[in-house]
Amino acid sequence: PDLKLFTVSGYPFTKYADLSQTLVLMKKDAPANVMTTMLNTMGRFGAQTGAPVTKVTFDSAIQNDNAQHRDILVFAENSADIDNLGKLEPEIILEKVKGNLKSNFEAKSKDAAPQSTVTEDTGIATIAQYESPYGSGRSVVAILGDGQDGSYLLNKRLMNPGDLKMVGGGVAIFKPNAQPASYMVGPDYYTGSLPWHQRVWYSLLDQPLLLVLFTLVCALLFAGGIYYLMHSLIRFRNRRN
């Protein structure tokens, strides 16, 4: 997961400028501050691609195959089980975000009673990204705020393109009067396709010793090839003489 790609360019949702492969999940009775966050995010996507987001799919629940071949964007307030974000470890936040998606947006039976939660307005917000459990190589990005203050904090940053450039990793936490804190949590996954040599390169970026060793091996092979070529030319000239 790399939230910097999301905050800077809207990736992976903006792979298609009209967001035709994006599923937005929101509650039917989403409050005004959540709606504002969604609209500002859509506007940010449009500004990044230069095209209107006219093909995005909206739903209040994951049903049938509506999420299997789409990247998922979740807008919500923190439920009680994700409250007090600033007091939790990033790994725990990510697991609670995943559980919140499953419990609040997966289709339930008609007899299931809706759950209502009350949250403390702490003015803290979070953006989390992880691989979609509904489709391999697809992403889920959840944008969550604690009440009016948390949503205001998110919207203030969404409306200023430069404010989110420092965000990265799998979980980003926003607090009042502080820079966003980013954490690299969650398992790695790949979206799209890369040539084999670029995959090798990206794999080596996190292993500096292996990268140095790989560079030395390549240098030795290159030097050996040059030596063999020059030696062959010298022998060829000697035979002619």
From TrEMBL:
<keyword id="KW-1133">Transmembrane helix</keyword>
<dbReference type="InterPro" id="IPR018513">
    <property type="entry name" value="Cell_synthase_bac"/>
</dbReference>
<keyword id="KW-1003">Cell membrane</keyword>
<dbReference type="Pfam" id="PF03170">
    <property type="entry name" value="BcsB"/>
</dbReference>
<feature type="transmembrane region" description="Helical">
    <location>
        <begin position="209"/>
        <end position="230"/>
    </location>
</feature>
<dbReference type="GO" id="GO:0005886">
    <property type="term" value="C:plasma membrane"/>
</dbReference>
<keyword id="KW-0812">Transmembrane</keyword>
<keyword id="KW-0472">Membrane</keyword>
<dbReference type="GO" id="GO:0006011">
    <property type="term" value="P:UDP-alpha-D-glucose metabolic process"/>
</dbReference>
<protein>
    <submittedName>
        <fullName>Cellulose biosynthesis cyclic di-GMP-binding regulatory protein BcsB</fullName>
    </submittedName>
</protein>
